[in-house]
Design brief:
By secondary structure, the protein is an alpha/beta fold. Helices cover 40% and strands 20% of the residues.
Length: 415
């Protein structure tokens, strides 16, 4: 039997679920827009030059690449490599394309510039709950503002979005790459080791400190340095932000972190668990400052993540531009909304059936009247009403006919 399923890690969405996803997307976009962010759009295809130079961490390993076309594809060359036959890739997140977009358009844009991007990204993930190979990201970013107020606005906006979507139990974890860098260097690692060490530290929540130790040993790092780092991390996990100064963290970085946490708690009226957490690393190497993730009950991973990536525009253009962003995980949010039965305030869908003897003007007059309260689909009455009722609930929640509605405004619920 022929298989009509979509490619592994991708999904079809029938009308009910597609409507829910669109309601989620619209809620996110409206909240972003109300907070002064501006919608932009970028292609799903990007040059491998930008994608490979982005310090994207493990995402580079998960990137889908496209094969060269036409005369550019020479399969006769001996000892071919992947680089010989590819030149573009599907974007693995929205940050790299946005940085390229800003570099290309910055002379026409105000400073600071607040951007929205909502679109598909692609990674060769192992499919699991809320983690697909094709997925939607919902990003907001600020370019040209190096103050902590940019982070504060981004994070407060994302919390506002989640609140509108019905999420009540949120945990917000905040860290800073400058803090992590100081800890790694204090433990004795070299500056060039920081990125590799942070990629491993990003797995703390999955493999624990013991697993981190083993992986760093496997990478060939000095045991004494590893043990020192684990000792420091254990101290911070126990005692928090106040002990970071004894490990070489600058006072200005600590002050910035405290300002962010204090004001975020004030703006949210201490309704959520907002805290400094040294286990938050974010695997991408392009982060340079504040990093953060948001969690909720019922999902093991983060549903929001982001941070400051001040060096990316300079890498593309040679001109330093500060940048910071935040991304809501659309897929896990949609999974949780479905599981929790969260509904949206919207018109119901109704099917209006007509018979052959109902004249056209009457059909559309009744439809116009019903459209005040419903989204209305107009169909000829089917021969097999039993089969119709079995399937109609996927696209509508109510049904009536021209005759029934004119006679007594009778509307039958399907669900």
């Amino acid at each position: 039997m022929k298989n009509y399923n979509p490619v592994r890690g991708t999904y079809d969405y029938a009308p009910k679920e597609a409507r829910t996803r669109e309601n989620v997307r619209r809620t996110i976009l409206n909240c972003y827009t109300e907070n002064g962010y501006n919608l932009v759009d970028t292609p799903i295809l990007e040059s491998l030059e930008y994608l490979n130079s982005s310090d994207g961490g493990d995402n580079l390993r998960l990137m889908f690449k496209t094969v060269k076309r036409g005369d550019k594809l020479d399969l006769t060359k001996p000892n071919l490599t992947v680089d010989d036959i590819t030149e573009e890739g599907l974007r693995y997140d929205l940050t790299v394309p946005l940085a390229r977009f800003y570099a290309n358009n910055r002379e026409k844009l105000p400073t600071p510039f607040k951007a929205i991007q909502i679109g598909h990204a692609f990674r060769a993930e192992r499919p699991q709950k809320g983690r697909n190979r094709q997925f939607v990201q919902c990003d907001i970013d600020v370019f040209g503002d190096n103050s902590v107020n940019a982070e504060l606005d981004l994070m407060n906006t994302c919390i506002e979005v989640l609140t509108r979507l019905g999420f009540k139990n949120l945990t917000v974890k905040v860290n800073d790459r400058q803090i992590l860098n100081s800890l790694v260097l204090f433990a004795g690692f070299k500056k060039e080791d920081i990125s590799s060490v942070c990629v491993t530290l990003d797995k703390i929540d999955k493999i624990s400190l013991t697993g981190v130790t083993m992986e760093l040993i496997e990478k060939g790092f000095d045991t004494a340095e590893i043990n020192k780092l684990i000792e420091i991390l254990d101290d911070l996990i126990t005692n928090g932000l106040d002990v970071t100064s004894k490990y070489g963290v600058e006072e200005a970085v600590i002050t910035r972190m405290k300002y962010l946490l204090d004001n975020l708690n004030m703006l949210t009226k201490n309704a959520f668990d907002i805290k400094f957490d040294t286990s938050i690393v974010r695997g991408q190497g392009y982060y340079t400052g504040t990093i953060y993730e948001m969690y909720t009950d019922g999902f093991s991973g983060a549903i929001v993540g982001g941070g400051r990536y001040d060096g990316m525009i300079e890498k593309i253009t040679g001109i330093p531009v500060s940048a910071v962003g935040c991304s809501i995980g659309f897929e896990p949010v949609c999974v949780l909304i479905k599981e929790r039965g969260i509904s949206f305030d919207e018109k119901e869908n109704l099917i209006l059936l007509f018979d052959s003897d109902d004249d056209v003007s009457t059909r559309y007059k009744v439809k116009k009247d019903l459209k005040k309260a419903y989204n209305v689909s107009l169909f000829a009455r089917p021969k097999n009403m039993k089969s119709f009722y079995e399937r109609a609930g996927e696209v509508a929640s109510a049904v009536t006919s021209v005759k029934d509605y004119l006679a007594n405004k009778e509307i039958k619920k399907l669900n």
